[in-house]
Design brief:
It comes from Euplotes harpa. By secondary structure, this protein is mainly alpha-helical. It has a domain of 213 residues. The chain has 13 helices and four strands.
């Protein structure tokens, strides 16, 4: 029982010792405070004053042996008033504001009066690369792309330059070419040609097409000609000739690579052999809708645009801009669900959303 009482008494002994130590520390701190108060008149004669004491002196006044030192005895933590001009010996030449130190005055001048000194806005200068202003006329996906002075014009006949371009670049008879019948329809509808018995006009409103017409009824060739019709309404003949060459080039590309693209996309629905059989008897642009047209845009730029003889005289930059414009037009008008993303490095047109 004695040992048990001894263990129970231990915490009380430590607790009492702790109180005595705390009291001793508290008494020492009081002594230090009282000594500081008593030695305030001799503080400037000592070379070993602490950093806290120097900070107090700097806050409440500069070190001056001939001035009244009673202001240093202000209570620590009391903020100075803006109207208190005591110790503000650094004055701004521009706005007459005063500061306690030169660094504060220098920062004030740099932030507030930099414009008066160097003619630049009053803010910290940073090295930032200036961004190029956005020009919608240079963006191929904007509505203003064909409205620049060197492109704007129209309306013109959708059949303009068709015969000459097909003969020179494709070496084919224009009237036997698949696109001729659709362009003849649009030429009649726009009032540039008269109706004849050989031309069959589809019974659909091209200005208000339904989603069923776009997905089930219209082939790539018909969509190509509809795009040419839209462009012919706003461009001059020279620009239209370049767009016509581009469309013929795009048609060559989709007929060369379209079946493989569709086989990769629809492998679960149709077998490769079935698609190959159809490819042997039909051109892709005749019997398929425009859903997969954007997928051959990269082949158009890489394979055909680099070949001068196959590019119909168009430059690579012209082909890239017209490809972006055409594929954007397809997406906006719901002929396809594929949307292009253009990269700065090859391959330039690479992905679809």
């Amino acid at each position: 029982s004695a040992g048990l009482r001894h263990e129970r008494g231990m915490p009380n002994l430590r607790y009492q010792a702790g109180i005595s130590e705390m009291d001793h520390k508290y008494d020492d701190s009081k002594d230090k405070i009282s000594l500081k108060e008593e030695a305030k008149d001799d503080i400037y004669d000592s070379k070993s004053y602490s950093r806290v004491d120097y900070k107090d002196m700097h806050m409440y006044g500069s070190i001056d042996h001939g001035t009244d030192h009673s202001r240093i005895s202000r209570k620590k933590g009391k903020r100075r008033s803006k109207k208190d001009q005591e110790g503000r010996n650094f004055r701004c030449d521009h706005c007459e504001k005063t500061y306690l130190s030169y660094p504060a005055l220098y920062t004030h001048k740099k932030l507030k009066h930099l414009e008066k000194q160097s003619g630049e806005p009053g803010q910290i200068r940073r090295f930032v690369r200036p961004s190029k202003p956005y020009d919608p006329q240079k963006n191929p996906t904007s509505d203003e792309f064909f409205l620049t002075p060197d492109k704007a014009g129209g309306p013109i006949d959708p059949l303009t330059f068709f015969s000459s371009v097909v003969k020179e670049d494709l070496e084919m008879e224009p009237k036997h070419f698949r696109l001729y019948s659709f362009l003849k329809v649009f030429s009649i509808l726009d009032g540039f040609a008269s109706e004849d018995t050989e031309t069959l006009i589809p019974k659909r409103d091209y200005d208000n097409l339904t989603l069923h017409d776009k997905e089930k009824c219209m082939s790539c060739d018909e969509v190509f000609c509809l795009y040419l019709r839209e462009v012919s309404r706003m461009v001059n003949p020279l620009t239209y000739k370049a767009v016509l060459k581009f469309v013929l080039l795009y048609r060559e590309c989709i007929n060369e690579f379209g079946w493989n693209k569709q086989a990769q996309d629809e492998l679960g629905e149709r077998t490769v052999e079935e698609l190959r059989k159809r490819a042997n008897f039909h051109e892709y642009s005749i019997c398929n809708n425009a859903e997969h047209l954007p997928e051959v845009s990269n082949e158009l730029v890489v394979e055909l645009a680099e070949n001068r003889r196959r590019s119909f005289g168009l430059t690579r930059d012209e082909i890239i801009d017209l490809t972006r414009n055409f594929c954007h037009w397809l997406f906006v008008n719901q002929f396809t669900t594929r949307k292009l993303r253009v990269d700065d490095e090859p391959p330039y047109i690479n992905s679809f959303n």
